[in-house]
C-alpha cells in the first residue's frame, strides 16, 4: 500500500530496514522508485557506534591517518592540526560538491543515498550513529538532494554526486522536498524536523567515497531489463506470427544443442506465446514453399538469450557490490584503519558497458523485424507499410524511421565508457573507471530499447489485425487487445506519436506483460 506525496514519488506504508547484511535489489527499487522509508536496525547502529570509537581514538593521534588528520588525494601528505579537523570534513564536502549540468533523476539520487547508507550501516566507515540516522531520515522524509549530471569519474567512487548528498545533510545546497519542489536544504530539513549534521572526523570522507551512484543505476537498469527481455520475446512472437513465420525452430531439442540458459528461456517463452495460433496453423500445409525464416525471426532466442545471459552476469556483479563496504580508509573488523582501492569502479563500469552493447543489439533485431512488416516483398501479403490505402496513406513508414533513429543512437551509446581514463588529482588518481558515465548512457539506452520494442509491438499488432479472419494465439491476441484499449486498430492515417507513447506506457506499466502472461502463464 502506498500514498502519493509528490510528483512521481510515493511513500510506502512500510520501511526498508538496513542491517548488517546487504540490501537487496528489491529494496533499492522500493526506496528509489516507490518512496519506501528507511530504518536502521539495532545491530547496525551498535556496529556503527563500536567502530566510531576507533576513529575517536585516532582523532588526537599525532601520527597521520588518511581522512582523519591529513588532506585528500594529492594533498594527503598535508598534516592537519587537531583544531582544524572538523573544518577539514566540511571543506571536503563543499569543495567536492562540484557537479554541473542537468539534474539527475530523483530515483537515481535516492538509490545512491540508500546504498551509501547501507555501507555506513556495516560499521566499516567510522561515522557516528547520529549521522547515519539523519541520512536515513532524509530518505524517509522524501528529501532528495540536487545532484547534477557531470562530476564523477567513477574513482574514488562517485565523489561529486555523493558530496551533493552530504552537503544537503549539512543543511547546505539545494534539494527537492517530498512534493518535488526545489528549495534550500536547510528549509526542507527544518520542515521535516531533521537537524543539520555538523560533520566530525572522517565523516565527510565516509559520506562521499563510494560507487553508490553507478551501482544504484546498475540495479535499476537490471530491474528494467528483466521486464523488457520478456517484452522482447512477446514482440518477437507477435512478429513471427504476423509475418507467417514458423515456431518449429524454437523446439526444445534444437535449442538444447546449444545449451545457453538464456537461449532456452527465450525459446520456451516463444513457444508458450505462439501456442494455439490459427495464423500459424494456416500455412502449415504442403503448399508452403518457405524453407526457413530470416535471421531476425529465426534467431530471436539466440540474440534475446545472449542478452539474458549478459544480464545474469551483471546481476551477479551487482549482488557482490551490494554486499560490499566501500570506503577509504576502511575500519576493518579487527579495528585497523586501512587504506585500500575498493572504491575503483571498474567491476561496475565493465558490466554497465556490456549491458549497453547487449541493449543496442536487442533493439537492432527488433527494428529489423519491424522493417519486414513494411516491405511488400517480405511481408507475405500485407499491404505496403501496413497502410490502409498505400500511397494516400503512409501507415507505419515513419514509425520505423523513429525506431531506426533510436537504434542508431543506441549503437553510439554502446561505445564503452570504461575504456577511457583521464588522470586527476595531480596524477595521484591516475586511472579512473568512468563508471558513472557508463551508467548514465545505459539509462538512456534502456529508455530507447523500451521505445523500440513498443513500436514493434504496435506494428506486429497491426499485422495480426490485417490477417483477419485468422485468429492469433491466445497470448499474442491478449497483447493485441491490451494495446487496442488505448490505440485504435488499422485504418486511415492518424496522428501517430500518441499511439507510440501509449504503447510505451503499456510496456512501462507492465500491461503488455500482464496481458501475455494472463494467457501463456508466467514467462521466464
What do these coordinates show?
The two termini are 27 Å apart. This protein has 2 domains: 2-210, Fumarase/aspartase (N-terminal domain) (Fumarase C, Chain B, domain 1), CATH 1.10.275.10; 217-419 and 431-520, Fumarase/aspartase (Central domain) (Fumarase C, Chain A, domain 2). The longest helix is centred in the C-terminal third of the chain and has 32 residues, at 435-466. Residues 1-12 have low confidence and may be disordered. The relative contact order is 0.11. The chain has helices spanning 25-34, 42-59, 85-96, 106-121, 129-140, 159-169, 185-192, 203-208, 212-242, 252-256, 261-274, 278-281, 295-298, 300-322, 346-374, 397-413, 435-466, 474-484, 497-508, 511-520; strands spanning 2-6, 9-12, 15-18, 37-40, 100-103, 144-145, 148-150, 174-176, 182-184, 330-331, 337-338. Helices cover 54% and strands 7% of the residues. Strands 6-8-9 form a 3-stranded antiparallel sheet. The protein has a two-stranded antiparallel ribbon with strand order 1-2. It contains 20 helices and 11 strands. It is found in: Cytoplasm.
CATH superfamily of the largest domain: Fumarase/aspartase (Central domain)
Report the C-alpha radius of gyration, rounded: 26 Å
Indicate the proportion of strand residues. Answer: 5-15%
Poorly predicted spans: 1-12
Distance between the termini: 27 Å
What characteristic shape results from the CA principal axes?
A: elongated
- Rounded average pLDDT: 92
Structural class: mainly alpha
Q: In total, how many domains does the architecture comprise?
A: 2
Q: Can you name the CATH architecture of the largest domain?
A: Up-down Bundle
Helix content percent band? 40-55%
The top-level CATH class of the largest domain is Mainly Alpha
Q: What count of helical segments does DSSP give?
A: 20
Main sheet makeup: 3 strands, antiparallel
CATH topology of the largest domain: Fumarase C, Chain A, domain 2
Number of strands: 11
Order of strands side by side in the largest beta sheet? 6-8-9
Amino acid at each position: 500500500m502506498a500514498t502519493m506525496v509528490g510528483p512521481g514519488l510515493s511513500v510506502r506504508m512500510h520501511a526498508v530496514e538496513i542491517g548488517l547484511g546487504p540490501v537487496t535489489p528489491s529494496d533499492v527499487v522500493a526506496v528509489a522508485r516507490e518512496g519506501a522509508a528507511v530504518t536502521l536496525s539495532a545491530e547496525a547502529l551498535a556496529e556503527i557506534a563500536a567502530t566510531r570509537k576507533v576513529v575517536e581514538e585516532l582523532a588526537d593521534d599525532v601520527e597521520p591517518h588518511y581522512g582523519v588528520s591529513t588532506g585528500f588525494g594529492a594533498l594527503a601528505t598535508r598534516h592537519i592540526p587537531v583544531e582544524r579537523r572538523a573544518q577539514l570534513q566540511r571543506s571536503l564536502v563543499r569543495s567536492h560538491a562540484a557537479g554541473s549540468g542537468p539534474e539527475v533523476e530523483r530515483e537515481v539520487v535516492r538509490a545512491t543515498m540508500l546504498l551509501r547508507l547501507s555501507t555506513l550501516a556495516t560499521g566499516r566507515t567510522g561515522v557516528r550513529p547520529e549521522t547515519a540516522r539523519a541520512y536515513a531520515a532524509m530518505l524517509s522524509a522524501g528529501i532528495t538532494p540536487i545532484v547534477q549530471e557531470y562530476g564523477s569519474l567513477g574513482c574514488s567512487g562517485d565523489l561529486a554526486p555523493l558530496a551533493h548528498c552530504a552537503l544537503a545533510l549539512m543543511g547546505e545546497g539545494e534539494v527537492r522536498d517530498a512534493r518535488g519542489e526545489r528549495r534550500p536544504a536547510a528549509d526542507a530539513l527544518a520542515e521535516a524536523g531533521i537537524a543539520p549534521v555538523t560533520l566530525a572526523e572522517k565523516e565527510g570522507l565516509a559520506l562521499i567515497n563510494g560507487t553508490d551512484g553507478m551501482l544504484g543505476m546498475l540495479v535499476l537498469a537490471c530491474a528494467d531489463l528483466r521486464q523488457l527481455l520478456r517484452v522482447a520475446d512477446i514482440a518477437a512472437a507477435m512478429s513471427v506470427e504476423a509475418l507467417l513465420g514458423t515456431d518449429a525452430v524454437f523446439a526444445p531439442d534444437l535449442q538444447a544443442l546449444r545449451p545457453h540458459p538464456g537461449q532456452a528461456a527465450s525459446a520456451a517463452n516463444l513457444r508458450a506465446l505462439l501456442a494455439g495460433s490459427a495464423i500459424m496453423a494456416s500455412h502449415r500445409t504442403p503448399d508452403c514453399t518457405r524453407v526457413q525464416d530470416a535471421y531476425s525471426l529465426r534467431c530471436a532466442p539466440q540474440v534475446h538469450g545472449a542478452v539474458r545471459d549478459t544480464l545474469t552476469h551483471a546481476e551477479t556483479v551487482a549482488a557482490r557490490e551490494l554486499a560490499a563496504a566501500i570506503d577509504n580508509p576502511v575500519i576493518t573488523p579487527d579495528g585497523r584503519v586501512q587504506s585500500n582501492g575498493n572504491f575503483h569502479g571498474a567491476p561496475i563500469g565493465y558490466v554497465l558497458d556490456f549491458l549497453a552493447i547487449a541493449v543496442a543489439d536487442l533493439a537492432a533485431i527488433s527494428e529489423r523485424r519491424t522493417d519486414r512488416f513494411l516491405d511488400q516483398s517480405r511481408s507475405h501479403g500485407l499491404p505496403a507499410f501496413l497502410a490502409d490505402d498505400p500511397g494516400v496513406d503512409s501507415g507505419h513508414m515513419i514509425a520505423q524511421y523513429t525506431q531506426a533513429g533510436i537504434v542508431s543512437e543506441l549503437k553510439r551509446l554502446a561505445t564503452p565508457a570504461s575504456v577511457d581514463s583521464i588522470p586527476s588529482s595531480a596524477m595521484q588518481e591516475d586511472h579512473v573507471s568512468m563508471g558513472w558515465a557508463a551508467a548514465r548512457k545505459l539509462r538512456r539506452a534502456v529508455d530507447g530499447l523500451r521505445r523500440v520494442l513498443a513500436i514493434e509491438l504496435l506494428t506486429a499488432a497491426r499485422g495480426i489485425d490485417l490477417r483477419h479472419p485468422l485468429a492469433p494465439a491466445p497470448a499474442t491476441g491478449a497483447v493485441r487487445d491490451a494495446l487496442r484499449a488505448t490505440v485504435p486498430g488499422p485504418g486511415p492515417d492518424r496522428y501517430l506519436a500518441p499511439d507510440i507513447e501509449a504503447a510505451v506506457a503499456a510496456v512501462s506499466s507492465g500491461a503488455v506483460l500482464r496481458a501475455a502472461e494472463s494467457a501463456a502463464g508466467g514467462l521466464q
